[in-house]
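Usage

Read records sequentially. Each one opens with the input sequence:
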Amino acid sequence: MTKTYQFPENFLWGGATAANQLEGAHLEGGKGMNLADVMPGGKIRFKLISQLGFDFEIDKNKYTYPNHDAIDFYHRYAEDIALFAEMGFKTFRLSIAWSRIFPNGDELEPNEEGLAFYDRVFDECLKHGMEPLVTISHYEMPLYLIKEYGGWRSREVITFFERYAVTLFNRYKDKVKYWLTFNEINGATHMPIFSLGFSPATEEVRLQETFQGLHHQFVASSLAVKACHEIIPEAQIGCMLLYAPVYSFDANPVNVLHAMKEEQLFNYISGDVQVRGEYPAFTKRYFKENNIQIDMQEGDLETIKQYPVDFISLSYYMSRTEKKEKTPEDMIEGNIMAGVKNPFLEASDWGWEIDPIGLRISLNQLYDRYRVPLFIVENGLGAYDTLEEDGSIIDDYRINYLRGHIEAMGEAIEDGVELMGYTPWGCIDLVSASTGEMSKRYGFIYVDKHDDGSGTLERKKKKSFHWYQNVISTNGKEL
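and closes with the structure output:
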């Protein structure tokens, strides 16, 4: 007999995107260049951005730049939002491109064309009864701040971010009541280029620069929380974590301890600072052993303590398995966060291990540690989709993936976890962040756009579109 799950009546079902991966129009409306605009397309992207000393330059003779055009949401937002509404979305997670509002990032006055664009987008959402869930910074800081200031290495960027956030709160205070500060903030420990806007020159400085940059973001996040509560008292503002539970490869205490340390470092530093308002105890030893000396100004820790976030949002794609001593043969290809192959799990077309039970584990871990509401704002399956002769897309593999994770959510709610909502990643096909590919499709809606840049941009409903529509209409009772 199929089990039926009871989701809260006000549960926020929806979908998630990011400006740099779907808007396109990268130089329209007064927008300045940003980080995503210099990211090349294809699997070469991951190799280039993983190496030290990425130069943040465009070379069209060697690479393509799919984010420049993406899927043209900038001009087609009304059509796309109408499709989301047809599915029944209660919320739509999107981000604002910082360089649409402040093209260089350090201006004193914002770009009105950029502000007006998001007015139109939010109005379209609200027209359909859909709450915007807005990420303030999602892997796309202005390129000028990277080149002239060194990204989040520079403390000056705190001031620029605060000005940007305050501008958003004042402009959209009557339209947006759910906010997130930094997308996957803890991902910086593995790949600082995305969230911190710099590529360390040497391995010797990587940890020092990364944790200094993270400290600047922690202060900036707290200042954004302060401003949000003052300007929009009824709003809620959360942090956003890239969460992956870390399993020990076996019961060897050496491996269990190693997995525990990896989990602490990746999953809990950013959460503890933004929710508990303080650095966790284990960082004292970690910083000492790795010669990390964070430059903190007077009042930083007080600001962090005084202005914690209201809730935790998270992305969940996979778990991670670790052991102390590993060889290249042990590793699972595709997992961005490394880890060894888990013999109990299958993997996606891109090598990401699929672990729905890990989501239940994650939600319990987070809620037990923090006791604040949780919101899953990314989860999904990147896969190759095939158009049938009649033009349909039969993506049962995506439905099965999402069904398993929604069941895990239902179990976690029964476990006592307070869960606000669920916005699967890439509710419409868009440019992959890690590889810059269109062929790595996540959406309920197919977009006729391909890795070589060809395509009509026509939107087509996949089988999963109708399945998710029914999930929402039954509030998760029919999966």
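Summary fields computed downstream for this record:
- The chain has 15 helices and 14 strands.
- The first strand starts at residue 12 and ends at 16.
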